[in-house]
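Bumping with the actual sequence this time:
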Amino acid sequence: MEKYQISMLVGITIGFLARIYLLRVDYRQYPSYPHGYVTHISFGFIAAALGAVAIPAIMQPDFTAVTFLAVAATQFREVRKLERETLENLDASELIPRGKDYIEGIARVFEARNYLVMAVALISSGATFWGNWVYGVAGGGLALLAAFRLMSGQVVGDISEVVPASLTFKESLLMVEGIFLMNVGLPAHREKILKEGLAVLIKPRQDNARATLDNLGQRQAILHVASALLGTKRESGELEFSPAVGKDIDTGKIAIFLLPMEPDMECLIEAIQRVPILESSLRRPLATRAGRAAAD
Protein backbone atom coordinates (compact mmCIF):
# COMPACT_ATOMS: atom_id res chain seq x y z
CA MET A 1 0.00 0.00 0.00
CA GLU A 2 1.36 3.41 -0.94
CA LYS A 3 2.56 5.85 1.67
CA TYR A 4 -0.24 8.29 0.85
CA GLN A 5 -2.93 5.68 1.31
CA ILE A 6 -1.53 4.47 4.62
CA SER A 7 -1.34 7.99 6.06
CA MET A 8 -4.91 8.73 4.95
CA LEU A 9 -6.20 5.46 6.38
CA VAL A 10 -4.54 6.02 9.76
CA GLY A 11 -5.70 9.64 9.89
CA ILE A 12 -9.31 8.78 9.08
CA THR A 13 -9.37 5.90 11.56
CA ILE A 14 -7.87 7.85 14.47
CA GLY A 15 -9.98 10.93 13.74
CA PHE A 16 -13.18 8.91 13.50
CA LEU A 17 -12.44 7.07 16.74
CA ALA A 18 -11.78 10.43 18.40
CA ARG A 19 -15.24 11.65 17.35
CA ILE A 20 -16.89 8.53 18.72
CA TYR A 21 -15.02 9.02 21.99
CA LEU A 22 -16.24 12.62 22.18
CA LEU A 23 -19.82 11.59 21.45
CA ARG A 24 -21.81 10.83 24.57
CA VAL A 25 -25.22 11.46 26.07
CA ASP A 26 -25.15 13.10 29.51
CA TYR A 27 -27.65 14.86 31.77
CA ARG A 28 -28.48 17.25 28.93
CA GLN A 29 -29.99 14.28 27.06
CA TYR A 30 -28.45 15.46 23.84
CA PRO A 31 -27.59 14.23 21.27
CA SER A 32 -30.60 11.96 21.33
CA TYR A 33 -30.37 8.30 20.43
CA PRO A 34 -30.25 7.10 17.69
CA HIS A 35 -30.86 9.90 15.18
CA GLY A 36 -28.54 12.42 16.79
CA TYR A 37 -25.81 9.79 16.87
CA VAL A 38 -26.15 9.16 13.14
CA THR A 39 -25.86 12.86 12.34
CA HIS A 40 -22.80 13.51 14.48
CA ILE A 41 -21.00 10.30 13.56
CA SER A 42 -21.49 11.20 9.89
CA PHE A 43 -20.10 14.69 10.46
CA GLY A 44 -17.23 13.14 12.39
CA PHE A 45 -16.30 10.82 9.55
CA ILE A 46 -16.35 13.70 7.07
CA ALA A 47 -14.18 15.82 9.39
CA ALA A 48 -11.71 12.96 9.85
CA ALA A 49 -11.51 12.42 6.10
CA LEU A 50 -10.90 16.12 5.46
CA GLY A 51 -8.11 16.26 8.02
CA ALA A 52 -6.48 13.03 6.88
CA VAL A 53 -6.37 13.93 3.19
CA ALA A 54 -4.86 17.39 3.67
CA ILE A 55 -1.16 16.46 3.86
CA PRO A 56 -1.24 13.87 1.03
CA ALA A 57 -3.04 16.45 -1.12
CA ILE A 58 -0.38 19.08 -0.40
CA MET A 59 2.51 16.68 -1.00
CA GLN A 60 1.18 15.48 -4.36
CA PRO A 61 0.86 18.54 -4.89
CA ASP A 62 -2.85 18.78 -5.58
CA PHE A 63 -3.85 22.31 -4.67
CA THR A 64 -7.30 21.86 -6.15
CA ALA A 65 -7.96 19.27 -3.46
CA VAL A 66 -6.65 21.67 -0.80
CA THR A 67 -9.07 24.35 -2.00
CA PHE A 68 -11.88 21.83 -1.82
CA LEU A 69 -10.90 21.04 1.76
CA ALA A 70 -11.09 24.71 2.71
CA VAL A 71 -14.55 25.05 1.19
CA ALA A 72 -15.79 21.84 2.80
CA ALA A 73 -14.46 22.85 6.22
CA THR A 74 -16.54 26.02 6.20
CA GLN A 75 -19.68 23.89 6.05
CA PHE A 76 -19.09 22.87 9.66
CA ARG A 77 -20.20 26.34 10.63
CA GLU A 78 -23.69 25.10 9.91
CA VAL A 79 -23.29 22.57 12.72
CA ARG A 80 -23.58 25.31 15.32
CA LYS A 81 -26.74 26.62 13.68
CA LEU A 82 -28.21 23.10 13.56
CA GLU A 83 -27.49 22.46 17.25
CA ARG A 84 -28.78 25.87 18.30
CA GLU A 85 -32.08 25.47 16.47
CA THR A 86 -32.57 21.92 17.73
CA LEU A 87 -31.87 22.77 21.36
CA GLU A 88 -34.03 25.89 21.25
CA ASN A 89 -36.93 23.76 20.01
CA LEU A 90 -36.31 21.20 22.75
CA ASP A 91 -36.01 23.91 25.40
CA ALA A 92 -39.63 24.91 24.92
CA SER A 93 -40.74 21.62 26.51
CA GLU A 94 -38.35 21.71 29.48
CA LEU A 95 -39.79 22.37 32.93
CA ILE A 96 -36.56 24.20 33.78
CA PRO A 97 -35.15 25.58 30.50
CA ARG A 98 -31.46 25.63 29.69
CA GLY A 99 -31.58 29.24 28.55
CA LYS A 100 -30.16 30.82 25.40
CA ASP A 101 -26.65 31.27 26.83
CA TYR A 102 -26.29 27.61 27.75
CA ILE A 103 -27.67 26.52 24.38
CA GLU A 104 -25.19 28.73 22.55
CA GLY A 105 -22.36 27.24 24.58
CA ILE A 106 -23.42 23.69 23.74
CA ALA A 107 -23.73 24.59 20.04
CA ARG A 108 -20.21 26.04 20.01
CA VAL A 109 -18.84 22.87 21.57
CA PHE A 110 -20.38 20.69 18.87
CA GLU A 111 -18.90 22.89 16.16
CA ALA A 112 -15.49 22.88 17.82
CA ARG A 113 -15.48 19.08 18.12
CA ASN A 114 -15.54 18.71 14.34
CA TYR A 115 -12.51 20.98 14.02
CA LEU A 116 -10.88 18.99 16.81
CA VAL A 117 -11.44 15.77 14.87
CA MET A 118 -9.93 17.39 11.77
CA ALA A 119 -6.84 18.40 13.76
CA VAL A 120 -6.40 14.92 15.26
CA ALA A 121 -6.74 13.31 11.83
CA LEU A 122 -4.31 15.84 10.33
CA ILE A 123 -1.65 15.17 12.97
CA SER A 124 -2.12 11.39 12.72
CA SER A 125 -1.88 11.51 8.95
CA GLY A 126 1.20 13.74 9.03
CA ALA A 127 2.99 11.61 11.63
CA THR A 128 2.27 8.50 9.56
CA PHE A 129 3.40 10.15 6.34
CA TRP A 130 6.77 11.25 7.73
CA GLY A 131 7.16 8.29 10.08
CA ASN A 132 4.99 5.18 10.27
CA TRP A 133 1.59 4.14 11.58
CA VAL A 134 2.89 3.82 15.15
CA TYR A 135 3.90 7.48 15.10
CA GLY A 136 0.51 8.29 13.63
CA VAL A 137 -1.41 6.59 16.42
CA ALA A 138 0.81 8.14 19.10
CA GLY A 139 0.59 11.60 17.53
CA GLY A 140 -3.19 11.43 17.28
CA GLY A 141 -3.50 10.30 20.89
CA LEU A 142 -1.28 13.12 22.15
CA ALA A 143 -3.18 15.65 20.05
CA LEU A 144 -6.48 14.47 21.51
CA LEU A 145 -5.16 14.69 25.08
CA ALA A 146 -3.79 18.18 24.45
CA ALA A 147 -7.09 19.31 22.96
CA PHE A 148 -9.01 17.96 25.96
CA ARG A 149 -6.78 19.92 28.29
CA LEU A 150 -7.16 23.12 26.31
CA MET A 151 -10.92 22.76 25.90
CA SER A 152 -11.71 21.96 29.52
CA GLY A 153 -13.04 25.22 30.89
CA GLN A 154 -13.80 26.44 34.37
CA VAL A 155 -16.73 25.28 36.46
CA VAL A 156 -18.65 27.06 39.20
CA GLY A 157 -16.63 25.29 41.89
CA ASP A 158 -13.43 26.84 40.52
CA ILE A 159 -14.56 30.41 41.06
CA SER A 160 -16.80 30.14 44.10
CA GLU A 161 -17.61 28.26 47.28
CA VAL A 162 -20.94 26.42 47.44
CA VAL A 163 -22.29 25.90 50.96
CA PRO A 164 -25.61 24.72 52.45
CA ALA A 165 -28.09 27.41 53.46
CA SER A 166 -31.32 27.59 55.44
CA LEU A 167 -34.80 28.29 54.11
CA THR A 168 -37.11 30.63 56.01
CA PHE A 169 -40.32 32.53 55.40
CA LYS A 170 -40.96 36.14 56.28
CA GLU A 171 -44.73 36.00 56.14
CA SER A 172 -45.23 34.74 52.56
CA LEU A 173 -41.76 35.69 51.30
CA LEU A 174 -39.30 32.84 50.74
CA MET A 175 -35.85 33.80 52.02
CA VAL A 176 -32.47 32.06 51.89
CA GLU A 177 -30.10 33.47 54.49
CA GLY A 178 -31.94 36.78 54.27
CA ILE A 179 -31.97 36.86 50.44
CA PHE A 180 -35.47 37.21 48.97
CA LEU A 181 -36.37 34.69 46.27
CA MET A 182 -40.12 34.66 45.68
CA ASN A 183 -43.59 34.92 47.14
CA VAL A 184 -45.39 31.71 48.17
CA GLY A 185 -49.05 32.28 48.91
CA LEU A 186 -50.50 28.96 50.09
CA PRO A 187 -49.60 27.85 53.64
CA ALA A 188 -49.52 24.21 52.53
CA HIS A 189 -46.94 25.04 49.88
CA ARG A 190 -44.83 26.97 52.38
CA GLU A 191 -44.88 24.00 54.73
CA LYS A 192 -43.83 21.62 51.96
CA ILE A 193 -40.98 23.91 50.89
CA LEU A 194 -39.63 24.15 54.44
CA LYS A 195 -39.90 20.39 54.89
CA GLU A 196 -38.51 19.14 51.57
CA GLY A 197 -36.69 22.07 49.96
CA LEU A 198 -32.93 22.54 49.69
CA ALA A 199 -30.99 25.77 49.50
CA VAL A 200 -27.35 26.71 48.96
CA LEU A 201 -25.27 29.86 48.87
CA ILE A 202 -22.72 30.44 46.12
CA LYS A 203 -19.97 32.69 47.48
CA PRO A 204 -17.76 34.27 44.77
CA ARG A 205 -14.05 34.01 45.55
CA GLN A 206 -13.20 37.39 44.00
CA ASP A 207 -14.60 40.17 41.81
CA ASN A 208 -14.17 38.26 38.54
CA ALA A 209 -16.33 35.47 39.95
CA ARG A 210 -18.90 37.94 41.25
CA ALA A 211 -19.24 39.57 37.83
CA THR A 212 -19.54 36.17 36.14
CA LEU A 213 -22.26 34.97 38.52
CA ASP A 214 -24.19 38.19 37.95
CA ASN A 215 -24.99 36.92 34.45
CA LEU A 216 -28.59 35.71 34.22
CA GLY A 217 -27.70 33.05 31.66
CA GLN A 218 -25.15 31.54 34.05
CA ARG A 219 -27.71 31.44 36.84
CA GLN A 220 -30.27 29.76 34.58
CA ALA A 221 -27.69 27.14 33.62
CA ILE A 222 -27.15 26.39 37.32
CA LEU A 223 -30.88 25.96 37.91
CA HIS A 224 -31.23 23.70 34.86
CA VAL A 225 -28.31 21.44 35.77
CA ALA A 226 -29.38 21.10 39.41
CA SER A 227 -32.95 20.27 38.37
CA ALA A 228 -31.81 17.83 35.69
CA LEU A 229 -29.59 15.90 38.09
CA LEU A 230 -31.72 15.90 41.25
CA GLY A 231 -35.14 16.25 39.67
CA THR A 232 -37.76 18.84 40.52
CA LYS A 233 -41.24 18.62 42.01
CA ARG A 234 -42.42 21.51 39.93
CA GLU A 235 -45.31 20.74 37.60
CA SER A 236 -46.33 22.75 34.59
CA GLY A 237 -48.14 25.83 35.86
CA GLU A 238 -47.03 25.25 39.47
CA LEU A 239 -44.75 28.25 39.84
CA GLU A 240 -44.44 28.12 43.63
CA PHE A 241 -42.39 24.91 43.42
CA SER A 242 -40.08 26.28 40.73
CA PRO A 243 -36.34 26.50 41.44
CA ALA A 244 -35.37 30.06 42.23
CA VAL A 245 -32.23 32.17 42.37
CA GLY A 246 -31.49 35.50 44.00
CA LYS A 247 -28.55 37.73 44.87
CA ASP A 248 -27.39 39.53 47.96
CA ILE A 249 -26.90 42.97 46.43
CA ASP A 250 -24.32 43.94 49.06
CA THR A 251 -21.99 40.93 48.92
CA GLY A 252 -22.74 39.35 45.52
CA LYS A 253 -23.61 35.99 47.09
CA ILE A 254 -26.05 33.91 45.05
CA ALA A 255 -28.87 31.99 46.76
CA ILE A 256 -30.33 28.90 45.09
CA PHE A 257 -33.57 27.14 46.07
CA LEU A 258 -34.67 23.76 44.74
CA LEU A 259 -37.51 21.40 45.64
CA PRO A 260 -35.88 18.20 44.36
CA MET A 261 -37.13 14.69 43.84
CA GLU A 262 -33.90 13.48 45.48
CA PRO A 263 -33.29 15.68 48.55
CA ASP A 264 -29.54 15.14 48.89
CA MET A 265 -27.59 18.24 49.89
CA GLU A 266 -24.17 16.80 49.04
CA CYS A 267 -25.31 15.88 45.55
CA LEU A 268 -26.84 19.32 45.04
CA ILE A 269 -23.59 21.02 46.03
CA GLU A 270 -21.55 18.77 43.76
CA ALA A 271 -23.96 19.31 40.86
CA ILE A 272 -23.70 23.09 41.18
CA GLN A 273 -19.93 22.98 41.57
CA ARG A 274 -19.65 21.12 38.26
CA VAL A 275 -21.80 23.52 36.22
CA PRO A 276 -19.59 24.89 33.43
CA ILE A 277 -18.82 28.59 33.27
CA LEU A 278 -20.43 29.79 30.06
CA GLU A 279 -18.28 31.68 27.59
CA SER A 280 -20.93 34.36 27.28
CA SER A 281 -21.01 34.95 31.04
CA LEU A 282 -17.27 35.01 31.73
CA ARG A 283 -16.15 38.40 33.02
CA ARG A 284 -12.70 39.58 34.11
CA PRO A 285 -12.96 43.10 35.53
CA LEU A 286 -9.74 42.55 37.50
CA ALA A 287 -7.86 42.28 34.20
CA THR A 288 -8.39 46.01 33.66
CA ARG A 289 -6.80 48.91 35.52
CA ALA A 290 -10.19 50.40 36.35
CA GLY A 291 -11.46 47.07 37.68
CA ARG A 292 -8.43 46.57 39.91
CA ALA A 293 -8.68 50.12 41.21
CA ALA A 294 -12.38 49.69 42.00
CA ALA A 295 -11.67 46.45 43.87
CA ASP A 296 -9.13 48.09 46.19
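The C-alpha coordinates above came from a reply further down the thread. The chain is about 60% helix and 10% strand.
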